[in-house]
């Protein structure tokens, strides 16, 4: 990826006071980059030039936004105010320029088109998706809004973000936009079966070897000889949980084993069980068990 393409992926051509980024696992045909852009200032000015490329930029508004002038290939482009939860698609093989006049808070999903095609193949689709939702046809999309909201903690605290979780959300996002905005018919699937015993054993071994979650979804699926989408559904059928949630439960269960030894500091246990720090450990443990690690240890030692 060239420097100019990296600018596209991180939306550096948009002036913003807050810029937070996470990236889904790189696949042979690209990766999805998710960026939160936020400013409370008015009159941020013109967007900068960017390198035209075979990608789409899907924008989710986290707050209403209605003040900008917009140009497409040098001509004024129609624009309607956006409400919170609305989505717009900008095709980055064309030259968009905006004069940003109001405050904004939004998520940018940068998606190379070859990657979306690869994902559609993964899902069993036969059409070549071409996204279409220009600024004057923005749509309220509760599914993308929900997916975007689920990413906000990872964007705010990337050190705590699990790659497995980001990949899971990225896959769901790609599947949804392909169906809703790309003209790809949703394939009627037969009920997904469970993983075979050997597949389940291999997947769990890999996940437990990477308790911090820094393992790509595609890597585990490949080790099981499955596509990403099939693996996620089969793993859920087998364990009752998607891979990233199963991994969180295993972290907490491993932490409980360590905490039965009262001489081990919680900070050491947090690190050994794949948490970013003791604070991350405490929040996750309390959310899953209803009590803090200190309280649990006091009750069980």
Topology summary:
Layout: H1 3-9, E1 18-23, E2 33-39, E3 45-46, E4 55-61, E5 68-72, E6 75-76, E7 86-91, E8 96-100, E9 104-112, H2 113-123, E10 139-140, H3 142-156, H4 163-181, H5 197-209, H6 217-223, H7 228-239, H8 243-259, H9 266-272, H10 278-289, H11 293-300
Antiparallel strand pairs: 1-2, 2-9, 3-8, 4-7, 4-9, 5-6, 5-8, 7-10
Helix pairs in contact: 2-4, 3-4, 6-7, 9-10
How is this structure best summarized?
By secondary structure, the chain is α+β, with helices and mostly antiparallel strands.
Protein model, in words:
- By secondary structure, the protein is an alpha+beta fold.
- It has 3 domains: about 5-155, Jelly Rolls, CATH 2.60.120; about 195-240, Orthogonal Bundle (Arc Repressor Mutant, subunit A), CATH 1.10.10.60; about 250-300, Arc Repressor Mutant, subunit A (Orthogonal Bundle).
- The chain has 11 helices and 10 strands.
- The strands form 2 sheets. The protein has a 6-stranded antiparallel sheet with strand order 1-2-9-4-7-10.
- The N and C termini lie far apart (about 55 Å).
Key traits:
301 residues, alpha+beta, Jelly Rolls, Arc Repressor Mutant, subunit A, 3 domains, six-stranded antiparallel beta sheet, four-stranded antiparallel beta sheet, 11 helices
- Quaternary structure of the protein: single chain
Q: Determine the structural class based on helices, strands and strand pairing.
A: alpha+beta
How many strand segments? 10
Main sheet, how many strands, which sense, barrel?
6 strands, antiparallel
Number of helices: 11
What does the average pLDDT come to?
90
What is the CA-based Rg, rounded?
A: 21 Å
> Can you identify the CATH superfamily of the largest domain?
Jelly Rolls
CATH architecture of the largest domain: Sandwich
Tally of discrete structural domains:
3
Envelope shape: globular
CATH topology of the largest domain: Jelly Rolls
Please report which band the strand proportion falls in: under 5%, 5-15%, 15-25%, 25-35%, 35-45% or over 45%.
15-25%
